[in-house]
Design brief:
Elements: H1 9-21, E1 27-33, H2 43-48, E2 54-59, H3 67-77, E3 81-84, H4 93-103, H5 105-113, E4 120-125, H6 132-140, E5 158-161, E6 165-169, H7 181-190, H8 200-214, H9 216-223, H10 230-241, H11 252-264, H12 276-280
Parallel strand pairs: 1-2, 1-4, 2-3, 4-6
Antiparallel strand pairs: 5-6
Helix pairs in contact: 7-8, 8-9, 8-10, 8-11, 10-11
Bound molecules: guanosine-5'-triphosphate and magnesium ion (MG).
Length: about 290
């Protein structure tokens, strides 16, 4: 299987921009994907944050199942502030506002003692496609930041003013290198890696293999898959969905696309890819 590696030039630029803007912000919100919070944690970004207060948002909570609650608990036990969220649901606004407020509660109290109302600034950062811009729109109460269901939508920086604070939207950035290809694959599954640089055969087969190990019932329900090699599972998908070419050949390409899209859109149900040990392995880094 081809190694996953994605660190284009715009990410180097984005990292530089973030480090230049660090002194302007009162805290950093790292937006992770609740389906794979370990995979979507970028240690390089965390290092960049230095001593600033940090909040982890496990976003897309609506696509993850209850296993993600356990991962959230492990992150909190490591001493970090964290919450699970669904940024497309406006009723989440109160939760995230409360958590952000808490990051600067002391600073705010001190400012108020001195008799002025400070506007606090936060940087919103994370790997691509985790919902950073969507989260900003939720807080702003309107579609101010561009969003989209692929990696790399936000390209430049953008300050957005909400009531009480200002938020800096940043382009999604990857770790410069993945030591752990198992975790890198999770990022590919959820759409945080640009599909254009991926080998879709590899990704779809690896996804089927992992789902067969972690969520076999879902594969049975949607595609009638009971067991088999990844290729046999893919053939079951093609059979079930009628993806056949002339001459009775399987249309593997359409089958692969369907598996990946079904997973990303939540059509296989709520799924959490990372397991507790994946998160525990990072707990000193949070
Ligand atoms: N189901 C679900 N979808 C979400 C959630 N948050 C964001 N999305 C969707 O995820 C996709 C990516 O959202 P963006 O806000 O563009 O992500 P981003 O982190 O800004 O991405 P980049 O700018 O590429 O780094 C969009 O299609 C959003 O509608 C969520 O909590 N649940
Ligand atoms: Mg964005």
């Amino acid at each position: 299987m081809k190694n996953i590696q994605w660190f284009p030039g715009h990410m180097t630029k984005a990292m530089r921009m973030m480090s230049e803007h660090l002194s302007l912000v009162d805290g950093i919100v790292f937006v992770l994907d609740a389906r794979c919070p370990a995979a979507s944690f970028n240690p390089k970004l965390k290092k960049l944050a230095g001593n600033k207060p940090v909040l982890y948002v496990l976003n897309k909570g609506d696509l993850a199942d209850e296993r993600a609650d356990n991962l959230l608990k492990i992150i909190r036990e490591s001493g970090a502030a964290a919450l699970k969220l669904n940024a497309v649901n406006s009723s989440s606004k109160r939760d995230i506002t409360g958590a952000i407020d808490k990051m600067v509660a002391e600073k705010r109290a001190r400012a108020q003692e001195k008799g002025y109302n400070k506007v606090f600034r936060f940087m919103i950062a994370g790997v691509p496609n985790t919902g950073k811009s969507t989260l900003i729109n939720l807080l702003a109460g309107s579609r101010r930041a561009e969003t989209g269901d692929k990696a790399g939508v936000t390209r430049g920086k953008q300050w957005i003013r909400c009531d009480g604070f200002e938020l800096l939207d940043t382009p999604g950035t990857m770790p410069p290198a993945f030591e752990n290809q198992y975790l890198a694959r999770h990022l590919a599954f959820v759409g945080s890696v640009n599909d254009d640089i991926l080998d879709m055969d590899d990704i779809a087969l690896a996804l089927l293999e992992e789902l067969a190990a972690k969520y076999p019932q879902r594969l049975l329900e949607r595609y009638g898959i009971e067991a088999g090699t990844p290729l046999e599972m893919l053939e079951s998908v093609c059979k079930r969905r009628g993806f056949m070419l002339r001459g009775g050949e399987y249309d593997y390409e359409r089958g692969e696309r369907a598996v990946v899209d079904d997973f990303r859109k939540g059509k296989l149900g709520r799924i959490t890819l990372d397991v507790p040990d994946d998160v525990r392995g990072l707990s000193s880094a949070f």
